[in-house]
Amino acid sequence: MIYLDNAATSWPKPEETWQAMENFVRHIGANPGRSGHRLSIEAGRIVLEARVAVAELFGIEDPLRIVFTRNATEALNLALYGILHPGDQVITSSMEHNSVMRPLRALEKTGVEVQVLNSSPEGELDPQEVEQAIKGNTRLIVLNHASNVVGTLIPLAEIGEIARRNGVTFCVDAAQTAGAYPIDVEDMKIDLLAFTGHKSLYGPQGTGGLYIREGLEEILEPLMRGGTGSHSEFQEQPDFLPDRYESGTPNTVGLAGLGAGVGFILSHRLEQIRANEEAKTQLLIGGLESISGVIIYGCRDSKRQIAVVSFNVVGLTPSEVVMEMEENFQLLCRPGLHCAPAAHQTIGTFSQGTVRLSPGYFTTEEEIQVTLEAVGKIAARVKERDVTHV
User: 2-9+269-382 — its CATH code?
Assistant: First the structure.
């Protein structure tokens, strides 16, 4: 079996991830911050260590400015609903995931003005168009760092500078890039950074978080309120981070795995992981370009994208291609719209979508070659079929 669906969820995970989770369940298991005994204290230490690891990865000075959530979707909802109010304008792009577009469309019905900038068919966004769209009521710019459909990266630092210069809050959806591409919230002037744990951070599903720049907690409303284990004598929500935004029992076993996954990245060096995935992405792009009947989407440059490659085989739907890849070649990948219909409208593949290949750090070059051979055979069969029918 060859797994090429890392953009949905990375697999396999490093040994460190599941070992940390097993250790927590077997030997700790207590609720962090809800008791004073040693197991509760140990659970709290594990959560704190996960915060510290994530902070180091993203260049965040204060780990307490990281709020843990169930996933990037929850983090984005916290950011969007916590910042935007009727009469505000928000700027986004046509390459966004539904985790951004669906909350924005709901907020639009309440009176929030949603400005969607058209990206190029390759998934690129011109920073000058972002600046030109800013108005007096612009409250937020929210953009993904890289498209989950074609993988194209946007110039975060340049857009962050534009946002900061104009006094606009900058929120980044880093679901696809956190752990796969260098991110520094200070250098890139990012105010809110949403990330998920189960993709390139090598954590389990059900983990993620939101970095909140100092001062934003004064205007960012919580998405949920409740028990935090702190200031229990008050019936009002605490006003300090991370407790202001972390109500209820946390997914401690998941955060143990997330901390270990991020530790794996830090020990193996992100630059090395990036170079590894960049090389495999270029192999995929070059191989697919040589196959007659295959259409590739995006910028088709591994240096300007992450390890996500979308393509179609002329004469077949994405679902037909993916079904044959699994049944005949034991290749696992994803067909369709990838929860990003606006992106497919942008690149011209709506409504059938694309076949998405997303190798990861543990994918081998041999597996890439097998994948290319499989696609070549599928495309050749279609061409032979069409010639026979003529």
Answer: 3.90.1150.10
